[in-house]
Protein 1
Amino acid sequence: MKRKTSNLSRGMLFTFVWISSLYVSAQTINVSINIKESCIDMPVSVSVDDLMGNINSETLILYEITPSGQKFIHSQLESDYTSRLWFILEGFSAKNSTRNFVLKFQERDSLNKLNTDIHIYKSGENLTLRQKEQQILSYRFGTMYPPEGVDPLFKRSGFIHPLWSPGGEVLTRVQAPDHYHHYGIWGPWTLTHINDRKVDFWNLYEGQGTVKFAGFLSETTGSVFSGFRALQQHIDFGAKGEDQIAINESLDVRVWNINDKVRVIDYTTILNTPLPNGIMLDAYRYGGGIGFRATEKWTKDNSTVLTSEGKTRIDADGSNARWCIVEGESEVKEGRSGILFLSHPSNRAHPEPMRVWPMDANGGRGDMYFEFTPIRHESWELQKGNNYVLKYRMIVFDGEIDKETAEMYWNGFSLTPEIKINSKNKL
């Protein structure tokens, strides 16, 4: 049977070669991973579409071949439009090196009863992901109302808050008195046009539109990753007749089970519009992508920004970058916490424009706000019948991350692999 070459989802950087000479038996498959650029603790996957007939009765178990013998590696099967086996390439992998694995079919036993370290909990109006007893993030699916006495137009749902550092520091902020429409980590569009009519989904007090949670599409837990997909709707208040949906957004949040020292979180948003004439996302300094309102603790005096192009808090605003480190003082033992934001090369306008608040923001305090803004310099028209995808990854850390480490994380997120599957053997 001839096998087709396929692309890995989420764009990893590895070459997978299934080597016929190393094929041991019908019960084992050898896999070599050729690393093109240095990386750290990165998720990888391999297609197992041709093996699905065997997986029904047996379990795929993965081992890495090391100098001291075969080491068991946690793996997780994902079946959507295609079937892939995910695992973490643990530790540091050097540029132009090769790591070898063996994939076995084994009956289920105690080895295969994996402990899922990252769990999903629903309580009240929040979905929370935890690793053991440590909280990772909460997604607010219930409507959050502003404080008493504040215009109820500021209410909304569908955002991440809190986001915790590995050491337990809360890094996000919602409904700050200076910007009640700021909601932790979120991505509404600001200046848009439906036909000739302006609609603002960001500045809620304008009363032109909002974003709301409309339902969970899926929830997943496993030994390699856990997460959820949520439907979020951008609602236009100004249409004739009833309010209308201007944009449907499928938000996919996935937390990789690396270790308890760093969080690797994928934030993927898929947009489409049901409007017959589409919607124009106008060029503006705010809008869409992924926005982050940082903890009120961070000001110009105790927080920093560093981009892949060497820009800092002083000159990052309006520039383009592949990645950006946003960090500041915290109460953890390391004394600092932060987020490395990664923009995928497939994103519109990549390297992506950014909005970074200037040093004198908010009356001179210099509070921290960061956003990847794909419409910063050029408008973007969404047409009915098309899906538009933006992919981001957040590396949440305590302590510090230098530019060399940031580059290795970006390598693991960004580069497209070559996949070669031997077509001589039927598995």
Protein 2
Amino acid sequence: MNALRFSSLFVLTLVLAAAASAADVTGKWVAQVPARDGGTREAIFNLKAADGQITGTVSSPRGEQQISEGKIDGDAISFTVVVEFNGNQMKFLYKGKVAGDEIKFTREREGGQEGAREFTAKRSS
């Protein structure tokens, strides 16, 4: 019975440690995001991480959009952003890896045929 208690306590400790080791992404991040015309556009990510979830906004020349379906697991983050353009809604899927003051992102439009685009966001003060 003591072995079972010890094992349970050990597993609980590992789970709590993993949750505590999630990357700190709360704050403002700035990136030059590839555009369809081959240029780039500045995007500002205002992120808040809590309890394995990410909330916040993404601001770009098209305005400010809410983040949804945000998740954080260690140094991996993901979320979606829905943009309305000319009466159509487009859903963008973001996935990123946090490394210090940078997030290396891929962004892909759901149902799009152009494939994922890569860019790096940097923490801003």
Protein 3
Amino acid sequence: MCIYNISIDDALMERVRPALGDNDAVSRWMQAQIVGLLQQMVDGMQQNETKTTLSSRLRGIAAHAPKDFDYKKELENRY
């Protein structure tokens, strides 16, 4: 497990301490917040990778279409 040191303004910490409790409770809360934020980042990165992969596949499909293929006419004919 990684360990990082962070600095937080004392005045700010004292303002929120009544809602968070003792130092152990503050540590648990901060741990949960950081893990949640990091997981959101990972999820966002995975979504971006999926979008890139999908768009790459679609470009690959388009590259194999005949040169005179008209996508608009194809869609009009379907509906």
